[in-house]
């Protein structure tokens, strides 16, 4: 169940907006996410479905992990993602809607993410989860500022919980140090994931009623790409 990849062996997907890959943090345009005001029900449905994808990806990584230590760390991260999913589902039930019905429209786009993850090896799976969860968790937490006050506070608290990041970074850093040539392959793979992650991010904006949305999209995506670049730099990979 998850997004596109643009490496030569993969199937071409719709092209995401073209943005400069590297922007220094001081150059970023600050975005007031409260202006975007997403519709609460579809926003929560999409966020819940994405967390379910992260859980499934992490569970798959646990099953194929080469060491017991990796299994333990990844299983804990998977538990955090599942907890986020259930808590977002609880928010939907507070609104008297059926979570499955709300999540269903987001299945096709997120299924492409799953397909891309399933094509890679264990290290590519780890990097895919690291890239997409890192970008989307912070993005959805920021976008939640446009929700009604009480809902916004609870949803930010859910999405801000740490989980996979440190575990994934540790496993990837150790593997990159131990395996010559892995860094180049993972750098290429990481670049291929960005466009599809941005497509998911944009779909959340399409669900909002904000006026002047198009003008806001580029600085939002520029900031997401800069965040991605910093995450890749921490692993010694070229974004």
TrEMBL record:
InterPro entries per the UniProt record, alphabetical: Ferritin-like, Ferritin_actino
Name recorded for this polypeptide: Ferritin-like fold-containing protein
Short name of any one Pfam family annotated for the protein: MiaE_2
All copies of domain Ferritin-like, residue ranges: 43-202
Species for this entry: Agromyces salentinus
């Amino acid at each position: 169940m998850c997004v596109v990849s643009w490496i030569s062996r993969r199937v071409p997907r719709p092209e995401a907006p073209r943005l400069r890959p590297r922007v220094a943090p001081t150059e970023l345009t600050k975005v007031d996410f409260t202006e975007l005001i997403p519709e609460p029900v579809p926003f929560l449905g999409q966020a819940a479905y994405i967390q379910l994808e992260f859980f499934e990806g992490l569970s798959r990584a646990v099953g194929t992990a080469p060491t017991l230590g990796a299994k333990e760390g990844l299983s804990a991260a998977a538990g955090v993602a599942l907890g986020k999913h259930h808590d977002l589902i609880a928010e939907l039930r507070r609104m008297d809607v059926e979570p499955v019905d709300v999540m269903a429209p987001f299945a096709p786009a997120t299924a492409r993410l799953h397909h891309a993850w399933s094509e890679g090896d264990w290290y590519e799976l780890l990097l895919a989860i690291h890239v997409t969860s890192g970008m989307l968790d912070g993005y959805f937490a920021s976008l939640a500022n446009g929700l009604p006050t009480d809902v916004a506070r609870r949803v930010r608290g859910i999405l801000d919980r740490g989980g996979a990041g440190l575990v994934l970074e540790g496993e990837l850093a150790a593997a990159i140090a131990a395996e010559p040539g892995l860094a180049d392959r993972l750098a290429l793979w990481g670049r291929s994931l960005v466009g599809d992650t941005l497509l998911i991010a944009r779909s959340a904006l399409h669900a909002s009623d904000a006026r002047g949305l198009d003008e806001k999209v580029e600085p939002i995506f520029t900031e997401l790409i800069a965040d991605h670049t910093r995450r890749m730099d921490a692993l010694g990979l070229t974004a």
